[in-house]
Every structure is written in C-alpha cells, then in structure tokens.
Design a protein that fits this description.
Blueprint lengths: L1 E7 L2 E8 L3 E5 L6 E2 L10 E8 L4 E8 L6 E3 L2 E3 L1 E3 L5 E4 L2 E6 L12 E3 L6 E3 L14
Parallel strand pairs: 3-4
Antiparallel strand pairs: 1-2, 1-11, 3-5, 5-6, 6-9, 7-8, 7-10, 10-11, 12-13
Length: 137
C-alpha cells in the first residue's frame, strides 16, 4: 500500500497509510484526512487505488472533487492525476508527498521552499554529489 507523508516547512511529518480503495481528503471531520484550513473544501479530493493486473500492483489516482480552490500535484492544478512515487500533492496550504514504495526513507522527502506568494511552496531538485578532483598544485 501507499503512504502520504505530510510536509511541514520542507520536513517530513506524519505518515498516513492509504489502506482502503478510496481515501477522502477535506475539511469535514468524516474524511480520512481532515484538514482545518479555510482553503480546503468539505470534500476536497479523493485518492483511489485501482488494481493493475499487468503489474500485480495498485495504481493510485487523485481526483479533485470540484473543490473551490483546486487540487495540485507538483504545482500543477489537476482534475484527475495518476500519482507516481515522490509526487507532492497540495490541498489548501497542506503538502503531502506520495510514496508508493513502503521501504523509502521518509527523511528523504523533497525539501519545500517558500515563495514570495503567501502559502505557496515549491520543491527544488536534489543537488548531486560534488565531484572530487585533484587539487591544483
């Protein structure tokens, strides 16, 4: 099964297992994830697990539920989106990293950086290891 990791100021936080076919996210308390945020609709988005018989695994889709402020994946507004490992889902001001590999270390999540727009964060690609070379003589 997959996991959502809540990101707070770029740091991995609460891990939420997606352990049912439909996983509802919104402001109402009867959702699987209830977010206390004015920008979040009562029923904002749904993550649905669909069996992929060719891979003998599940594919996960996030679908916006006609929310007022939209659902974003990797900073792009979506209606329906097939999630991939490492995608960042933004609902209101909350960010969640989608992991479909349960062996991934949550400390390795993307770092979020504030922008000049209030409540908007971006991810920056990880920098590669520095090459070591000979020191000049």
């Amino acid at each position: 099964m997959a996991t959502l990791v809540q990101l707070k100021e770029g740091v991995a936080g609460i891990r939420l297992r997606i352990d049912q076919p439909q996983f509802r996210i919104g402001r109402a308390t009867d959702n699987d994830i209830s977010i206390d945020d004015e920008l979040v609709s009562k029923t904002h988005a749904v993550i649905e697990a669909m069996e992929n018989k060719q891979r003998a695994a599940f594919d996960y889709y996030v679908q916006d539920q006609q929310s007022t402020n939209g659902t974003y994946v990797n900073d792009k507004k979506i209606d329906l989106y097939k999630l991939s490992n490492g995608d960042v889902v933004r609902i209101g001001t909350s960010n969640f990293k989608f992991l479909d590999d349960t062996n991934e270390d949550p400390a390795e999540t993307a770092q979020l950086h504030k922008t000049w727009i209030p409540g908007v964060f971006v991810t920056k690609p990880k920098k590669g290891k520095k090459k070591t070379g000979k020191k000049p003589s």
